[in-house]
Amino acid sequence: MIARVAADEQSPWNARFWAGFVVCGLVLGLAVPLLNRWVAPDSPFALPDYLVPLFGKYLCYAILALSLDLVWGYAGILSLGHGAFFALGGYCMGMYLMRQIGTRGVYGNPVLPDFMVFLNWMELPWFWWGFDHFAYAAAMIMLVPGAFAFVFGWLAFRSRVTGVYLSIITQAMTYALWLAFFRNDMGFGGNNGLTDYKDILGWDVHLPETRLGLYLATVVVLGVAYLLCRFITVSKLGRVLLALRDAESRVRFLGYSTTHAKLFVFTVSAVLAGIAGGLYVPQVGIINPSEFSPGNSIEIAIWVSVGGRGTLVGAAIGAVLVNLAKTWLTGAAPEVWLFFLGGIFVLTTLVFPRGIVGVFRQLNWPRPRAATALPVESPVAAEKRI
Amino acid sequence: MNAAHPTGDVLLYLNGVTVSFEGFKALNDLSLVVEEGELRTIIGPNGAGKTTMMDVVTGKTRPDTGEVFFRGTEDLTRLDEADIANLGIGRKFQRPTVFENLTVYENLELALADSRGTWRTLFARPTPERRERIRATLSRIGLSGESTKSAGLLSHGQKQWLEIGMLLIHDRRLLLLDEPVAGMTDRETEETAALILDLARDRTIVVVEHDMAFVRSLGAKVTVLHEGSVLAEGSVEHVQNHPRVIEVYLGR
Prior knowledge:
The complex is a heterodimer.
Chain A: H1 6-9, H2 15-38, H3 52-74, H4 82-101, H5 114-118, H6 134-158, H7 163-182, E1 194-195, E2 199-200, E3 203-204, H8 208-234, H9 236-246, H10 248-253, H11 258-284, E4 286-287, H12 294-307, H13 313-332, H14 337-350, H15 355-362, H16 379-385
Antiparallel strand pairs in A: 1-4, 2-3
Helix pairs in contact in A: 2-8, 3-8, 3-11, 3-12, 3-13, 4-6, 4-11, 6-11, 8-11, 12-13, 12-15, 13-15
Chain B: E1 10-21, E2 24-35, E3 39-43, H1 50-57, E4 65-70, E5 74-75, H2 81-87, E6 89-92, H3 104-111, H4 118-123, H5 128-140, H6 156-169, E7 174-178, H7 186-199, E8 204-208, H8 212-218, E9 221-226, E10 229-234, H9 236-240, H10 243-250
Parallel strand pairs in B: 3-8, 3-9, 6-7, 7-8
Antiparallel strand pairs in B: 1-2, 1-4, 4-5, 9-10
Helix pairs in contact in B: 3-6, 5-6
């Protein structure tokens, strides 16, 4: 055989991949607990308790970035509303945490959260039923964003809304939810959102042990989410997605339903974003409508493009690095932050279109796979010439 | 000398098809019959409706009026692009549209006639038979040496062949080729004509073309379109001597 094909011999799940995966997992999973629990508090390497949830938050953002990369980097769907799926998952977790407060609230009502008592509500609205059970809440964290994305995607993809138009309606979606969740009579705490949590699964959310547990749970979920995204992107479906990113109607003429393929990844992606939101809320201690703000969703796209879109790993790295910079800059020089964010976005777009991961791959690291290549021409142009 | 062997069964049937775009009639009461096993060339000046006719057959454009049937029973006006493709109608576009960011091998893999559903593509595994078919097609279109190359790096002619290979591997019953030799060198044009004649032995092919030398080299039945309907039909000699055809097209 002259033409041995890369796909034949180089399995995407080879030993080298697993070694890298396990090493990254161990570093993330061991470094933070070791530095936090086993290093003497006065050592310069000690990680104070208050930083553990901060790292947990970064990893939640990494899961969120992964979910956006799946739809944007591979299927070419630039969703500027992924913050909405994240927030919906977060609200589901927030509702569970509110129900756990029980009689410890200011008004001591065993069933109604404080804000409902304050609004003179007499009974729990139907959509709050069941949220006192963790299993139910966990299911809703995935189901609510998933179902929302499914219906939204079905309407959008069936009508063949693509490109910039799709981006605009996803912004409109998150904006509409933002306005809706601000309203007190929606039943989600209005402007203040849901906060003052006491415990999760019987553990006090303020305890360092609980926070470390939540951090480790986030590491595990990030690993599983990464494997899932990789499974999808290296499958034949992944190649269908790459193909439709570049020439959608051509894929249709080959007999594939691009509507179904896009709907599938969009829904999976929204579920992942929802799970990220569900892990985020107990670690930051609050969920409020600002999570729906359109700017948040745009920021996610910036993380992904800084890290390198269409690479999965890059999305996660971008999310962590940009947020590290945000934490540092908003403390050191808050007025500079937005200029910095805009600046790195312009810089990566102009100078490093393949992001941080692209720069490393150009330094003659593993040969760039087809998946990492950006379209040679814009998808819009490809679409038009058909 | 016709390379194809029409069997007399109607494969594609268009009757009274009209398509208008903002008042302009791209197709005007077009009626056309293509028989099973036939090789047919369609010529006509720009704007005669050649590409619109292909759009109607492949489900990209819905006709305002008229009937379009495949194999006598399949009403193509009611199906979408993917369904029509799965019935066995393949289309090659005017400009080569291969997936530039996938390798040549992966392009053929996507075109291979097997699992098309989203769920099944997620769990599809390359079997030895599939690989063998891809390799056989690669050698038939002369791209065995390029299988791991990104399709975007191929020459123009190689892209055209890859696209024809993508139609081949899918086992289509009807191939619609839109200007398959546009932009090709003379040598590539000759090779493409030989490839099409070879392919026409076991499937039905409709070729839309401008290049009269190429049309002559195919030696097939010719349909002349003009202003959205059929002006003349017959052998190359017949249409070349048709007074109306000379007037609107060849004479100019």
